[in-house]
């Protein structure tokens, strides 16, 4: 299992038509320390990787880097959205939440360090999943995505790092700007990085940055709860 991505199918309990195929990566040291609890990163791909061929999911983001040999100090779960469907539908959001439940049940996941990131359609999914489950995650990283600014204050306690290309001709930059600005208006912890020369692919340089993963792993859900009580 270690250093490779294995394919699985998740069947949502009591919802036989709601299933997802996904790739699972475990860190090299996963089996070496039985008491260790590991951070979990959920990666949501874009529209071009939908379907029934899991190899498509390895085109971009952490699954691509893992396929190329990169090692990560966290569990990575990369589900695949079916053809002609979107992550942001209520049924898919519920199924993604249930998938995280199953991974938590079956693997040594640190519940205080669960993160979501995604690109394009997966960037929209990242925003929507966090808003639908505001106390579940430790941080999110939506890339060239967007969402409903009127709902975003539900995650004002959640650290957010968004990324977008200034010349994006698929998802306009304003979609990320309006989400981050709405979060900042309700005193949220959100930052937007704009790549001045990037078009739609603002994810390659984002995921190639070790600083992104260092920042993610510093975020803990418990610390947010303490802050909220103060």
UniProtKB/TrEMBL annotation:
Domain of life: Bacteria
GO molecular function, one term: hydrolase activity
Keywords assigned by UniProt, alphabetized: Signal
Coiled-coil regions listed in the entry: none
Ranges of residues in domain Dienelactone hydrolase: 93-200
Pfam families: DLH
Protein name (record): Phospholipase
Organism: Ktedonosporobacter rubrisoli
